[in-house]
Design goal:
By secondary structure, this protein is an alpha/beta fold. It is built from 17 helices and 16 strands. A seven-stranded mixed sheet has the order 1-3-2-4-5-6-7, sandwiched between helices. The protein is globular and about 75 Å long. The mean pLDDT is about 90.
């Protein structure tokens, strides 16, 4: 299929951040209701008013966003098909997480998008009054509609009409490679049938989250808050918890021990160069450093950590390993990469796994532990807040899988207050910035965490263990 070329109006709010959040808006939109969208540590680019353009339009867009170390995409409605083509055209850029909101790459499709008959009817009957009626149908709740209407859109009818014609001529995006990590579906969407959205994503590898009470418009700031990792907050919370982490991280200590026990039999005969990602206070490092005694030991963490207890010949680099690993480790330069209880904080752990695999020498191994769905389910059920945990099922094509295991661990605490202290003292509360929100969530947990028969409370961990080897050619 020939790649269509189009352009859009753009607005980039730059604060000199190294990360970019690209937000693709839907048909007929303009930026006014979305100017407040933000994520700490990210610049924000809005894209709207999609239309045909010359062959260099994607090149111009590439020049605008080239240089960012990480790009996260959030696309809404018809913005999903537009973003799909952009992701294809600019695939060499560092896209780490992609979130589709009430839209599909097959935007006009009987089973996976807006049915063609419905789209044709909308196009034939298009008028200023019809556009106004359409905008009312975007919302399931009156308060959301009133909020939206308080930001008059700066689009004239002719441009809105031309954009709809453009989407009518744009072929549905059809590729064997899924470009989307997450899809958010409004259960009361009156524009994109929810069943068609679900049918589009089924079997694609994209994880679907249903917002049962939401219409076609879903609070975009909430989507950003829920689905995009706040890495500045992660660095701050784990840095603050460094002094209390070791004494409180019983579950994480056991996961580290099991990872080392799994990894040790598979170590290559040569371990001159070792990298550990998410070193923290060295809980995992101390399990292997004296046994392997590598000539080069590179320790990476996004937080400021105390290095006095690290092995004498090691080198610590504070960085976002997800985006900076390739700058520190060239291809075929490392014998082993370790990471314990870290990858769940990455926007794109699957891309990171592929990147670290390239850094391995033949015979080298990756040994990772991380947490998956079901972890802290007790907290999520009470607060409605949770990490979007990795789905490792698609990683099995990377190298030779030596071990892939999952387990469920129940960590018990004397009471709910002890469980909340554990969450705080291990830094895993890096999900919301607002202190009052955090305090309220803590109080709610203390009140509502279910008690076991003996009065204790439990938190669930679901660790995965993954060991991959690069074959010796």
């Amino acid at each position: 299929m020939r790649m269509p070329v189009f352009q859009a109006d753009t607005r980039l709010t730059s604060h000199g951040n190294g990360r970019l959040l690209m937000v693709f808006l839907g048909w007929g939109m303009s930026p006014e209701p979305f100017l407040s969208l933000s994520k700490p540590g990210y610049d924000v680019m809005l894209l709207w008013n999609f239309r045909p353009a010359g062959d260099d339009s994607f090149d111009r867009l590439r020049r605008m966003i080239d240089g960012y170390s990480e790009i996260v995409v959030v696309a809404w409605s018809f913005g999903v098909v537009a973003a799909s083509y952009v992701l294809d055209a600019l695939s060499g850029l560092p896209f780490t997480r992609t979130i589709a909101v009430n839209g599909t790459p097959r935007h006009i499709d009987r089973r996976m998008g807006i049915p063609p008959a419905v789209f044709a009817l909308t196009l034939r009957g298009l008028s200023p009054a019809a556009v106004a009626k359409f905008n009312v149908r975007l919302f399931a709740e009156e308060k959301d509609r009133k909020w939206f209407e308080s930001y008059p859109l700066s689009r004239d009818f002719e441009s809105v009409k031309a954009e709809l014609y453009f989407f009518g001529t744009l072929l549905p995006y059809n590729s064997s490679e899924n470009r989307w990590n997450f899809a958010v579906v409004g259960g009361k969407d009156a524009i994109f049938p929810p069943a068609n959205q679900s049918a589009c994503w089924e079997g694609s590898g994209c994880k679907v989250t249903l917002f049962p009470e939401s219409g076609h418009y879903i609070d975009m700031q909430k989507v950003i808050d829920d689905f995009v990792v706040d890495k500045e907050l992660v660095a701050n919370r784990f840095g603050t918890a460094m002094e209390t982490y070791r004494e409180s991280a019983g579950a994480q200590r056991e996961v580290a021990r099991r990872l080392w026990n799994f990894a040790e039999p598979f170590l290559p005969g040569r371990t001159d160069t070792v990298v550990e990602v998410g070193v923290g206070d060295g809980l995992f490092t101390e399990l292997y450093a004296d046994r392997l005694r590598p000539k080069e030991l590179l320790l990476l963490d996004i937080a400021e950590v105390g290095t006095s207890s690290f092995p004498a010949k090691s080198r610590f680099v504070r960085c976002d390993a997800e985006t900076e690993f390739s700058q520190l480790c060239t291809d075929a330069s490392v014998d082993a990469v370790f990471s314990s209880s870290t990858l769940q904080w990455f926007n794109s752990p699957e891309v990171f796994v592929a990147r670290t695999y390239r850094a391995l020498r033949p015979g080298g191994i990756l040994a990772f532990s991380f947490y998956g769905d079901g972890t802290y389910r007790e907290v999520a059920e009470i607060t409605g807040v949770s990490l979007k945990y990795p789905d490792p099922s698609g990683w099995k094509h990377v190298g030779e899988i030596l071990l892939f295991e999952k387990e469920t661990v129940e960590a018990r605490f004397a009471d709910a207050s002890a469980a909340v202290r554990h969450i705080s003292r291990t830094g895993v509360n890096a999900l919301r910035r607002n202190p009052s929100t955090a305090v309220a969530a803590g109080r709610k947990l203390i009140r509502d965490l279910p008690k076991n028969a003996d009065g204790s409370v439990s938190l669930t961990y679901v660790p995965y263990y993954l060991i991959i080897r690069k074959p010796i050619i």
